[in-house]
Amino acid sequence: MRRPDARPLYVQVEAILNDRIVSGDWKSGQALPAEPELAAELGVSAGTLRRALARLEQRHLIERRQGRGTYVTQQTSEQALGQFFRVRNLAGRPVEPDTFITGVSTGPASEEEAARLRLRQGEAVHRIDRSRIFEGEPRIAERITLPAALFPGLSLPLAPAQLASEIYVHYRNAHGIIVVKSEENLSATAATEADAAVLNCPVGTPLLLIERVTFDAAGRVVELRVSRLDTRAHRYAVEIA
Amino acid sequence: MRRPDARPLYVQVEAILNDRIVSGDWKSGQALPAEPELAAELGVSAGTLRRALARLEQRHLIERRQGRGTYVTQQTSEQALGQFFRVRNLAGRPVEPDTFITGVSTGPASEEEAARLRLRQGEAVHRIDRSRIFEGEPRIAERITLPAALFPGLSLPLAPAQLASEIYVHYRNAHGIIVVKSEENLSATAATEADAAVLNCPVGTPLLLIERVTFDAAGRVVELRVSRLDTRAHRYAVEIA
DNA sequence: CTCGCATAGTCTTGTATAAGACACAAGACG
DNA sequence: CGTCTTGTGTCTTATACAAGACTATGCGAG
């Protein structure tokens, strides 16, 4: 006699709850049912449910607050910043970037983009070029590439102001895209003339090149981001445990 | 009526077990007592003990194997490599480095070293200069700085061969130093003449500069390591979750 | 008799349940 | 402005059974 699903029950429950969040059944910021209620509905014990919830919390999909309830994590720009933005100044303090959009376009994915985003070559992607400004100085030049299928309408009238970062957050919330994980490849490169112009630095200045691929809670690749960081006054901080 | 220790019981138990490992009470690779026995000895329920053990396992301090027992993690060079070594080749595959020691010395800590290692300026440190070779080519030039107080005798007759990495692992195991966490600051820099000589690259080549501080299970700073990685054929892979 | 091997026994950690005491938050009420 | 009540998540205990891993036993083949 073999079970239909060999995974532990708490993993199955985790998957069920994950689906409900991804599918928009429970929306961003919304409170989940109380634990006893939810456990009863799912037909599992409170302990098993709590174990599943603990795993979801570890993945930052939900937030639990004693006495208040359990909530689907709201993806504000501050939240995403704290979780994924690793630039620090030389004193080790987090830095608050301003954003300046320098260009937006839509077109077929290049071979490189398609491979990274797991698309077929030629599928439509949106591209956003922007610079990020720390303490008045431009320090990052980056290009964000998004699968158009996941962000319909993003190509439309887009204010060249810094709104774009907010729009981006809005799209994630509205489309059930909950960012969960990023994989990054880091290397060093020399500033090209284009980089030098954007970053206001001499040609050839060593830059930290960050190639990031981001995944959502459904396991989809949602973004490719290539950033060039001028590290003369900043560092990229990573913790390994 | 306030409790003497407001932390949850499972956290207190975790701290007790952590101490036993750090103090060498339970040695590297050794099996812990079985759960029921240990729970009885500590006067807590099996569930509470298991919760503490789960936390220790997450920190890689112990390893649990169903049917066999629970063991203090043994710090082999392979284990440390898998956990802390993030260099990949362009295909994304982990790379197996050879190591070549280029110099060993002992002396008073510089201001910079003292600050990073949390020592008083002038306290004795060991310094190991070495290069790391991937697929026949030298790709990393690095200096490791260790507090002499934690590694007594390391200054003595040291084979210039690649033994040093093994010796280093041995010292950690022998002195209750269990590496648990690293903090890294990444930036880009241009190869100096010294770098160029070691790495066999042109002067000015952009290098990935990695400044790493490593902590052990007792919360001590155990190592400062400054590495310069030639990223022409390799990447530094990081995952953010 | 000895070797090989299946298997039962027993020790280990892993999973799932249940129940009760506790702590925190928010609103109702005096 | 306190105090109470209610609803929430958190901690701790206890029990039972499942599953992995090793050991010993014993039986049969040679």
UniProtKB/TrEMBL annotation, chains A, B:
InterPro entries: Bact_HTH_transcr_reg (IPR050679), Chorismate_lyase_/UTRA_dom_sf (IPR028978), Tscrpt_reg_HTH_GntR (IPR000524), UTRA (IPR011663), WH-like_DNA-bd_sf (IPR036388), WH_DNA-bd_sf (IPR036390). Residues 7-75 form the HTH gntR-type domain. SMART domains: HTH_GNTR (SM00345), UTRA (SM00866). The keyword Transcription applies. GO terms for biological process: negative regulation of DNA-templated transcription. Keywords: DNA-binding, Transcription, Transcription regulation. GO terms for molecular function: DNA binding; DNA-binding transcription factor activity. Transmembrane segments: none annotated. It comes from the Bacteria. PANTHER family: MANNOSYL-D-GLYCERATE TRANSPORT/METABOLISM SYSTEM REPRESSOR MNGR-RELATED, MANNOSYL-D-GLYCERATE TRANSPORT_METABOLISM SYSTEM REPRESSOR MNGR-RELATED. This is GntR family transcriptional regulator.
